[in-house]
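Feature request, filed as a ticket because there's no other form

It would be nice if the structure record came with a short human-readable summary line next to the tokens. Right now we just get the raw output. Example of a typical job, pasted below so the devs can see what we mean:
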Amino acid sequence: MKKLFLTLICCVLSSVSFGQVDKQTQQINIDVKKNTIIVADFLERELKLDKKQKQICLNAYAEYGNNLNIARKKHLAKKIKDQKLSNQTLLKTSMRFVKMRDIKIKEILSKKQFALYNDKLLRFINPLTLEIDKKRKK
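Raw output as currently delivered:
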């Protein structure tokens, strides 16, 4: 009877602990999706985009956010012991997605707009969370 009771307690505790990690990941995914819209509005204001350009920009950032969420899930599934190495692999993966996103955005912007986007505006956007930080240093 004691063994059965202890087994049940262990099962419940392990399921609760695994559920919390998944809940944190889901919250990060929701935040990235919300920040995608905020970034598109920010770029529309700063670059003076028309509706078509804004829609393509929104699609590019939405795809980027989705790819980032998938990479984050795979990254958490690997459970690399070295945290620094783990963060470096996630950053390398995100930089690959950044290049794909920027190619799509470059197609719709003029040279002047893309120069402003690439030189100044990207510094305000966090590549892993898509949060905008107006106080970021150059």
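Something like this underneath would help us a lot:
The mean pLDDT is 82.
Residues 24-124 form one domain.
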